[in-house]
Amino acid sequence: xxxxxxxxxxxxxxxxxxxxxxxxxxxxxxxxxxxxxxxxxxxxxxxxxxxxxxxxxxxxxxxxxxxxxxxxxxxxxxxxxxxxxxxxxxxxxxxxxxxxxxxxxxxxxxxxxxxxxxxxxxxxxxxxxxxxxxxxxxxxxxxxxxxxxxxxxxxxxxxxxxxxxxxxxxxxxxxxxxxxxxxxxxxxxxxxxxxxxxxxxxxxxxxxxxxxxxxxxxxxxxxxxxxxxxxxxx
Length: 234
Description:
eight-stranded parallel beta barrel; alpha/beta; globular
């Protein structure tokens, strides 16, 4: 039997966390500042979100939106946040870091992974800004704690990166890591269904696509969520 496609939904408030879970999300990515690509939410929101719902809550660790390069003070902040997020009982952290050359910052990645212990990690869309995505993918696969890679295939809209997503899905098949496709997905069956079939992706990530009128600052829309779920569960 084919595995059902997992639906991850962005939430930025406790109200959105509750709505996402009620409308059928399988997992939540908890962030703030969605229009900036997502930043670390407050510890209070993290603690309350984890207590409120019985689905996994993954938490963004990103101190600013200027770039995916981080200085000493940023690193101190992020390592401290890992400790608090782990204590709050989150399912995973969502993290990524690059060097000035556009490569994965392996040294920082390993420092963060050392702090996470047995908690999982999603490597986020920093991978969409690397010089070579497939090389970066091989580097990420070295680490068993990284169980998910959120990517748009290097394009602003993942629907324009079908070939790359398919290649990444094929490479990760049978490994500990799964490709989570996101950016530009919507409940429109004429777009989403072909994308799923052509890529074979088993996890999808929705933000504005499941909000009222597709607006990033609007509430999560029960009808859009239902439309996505009906496609993913078919």
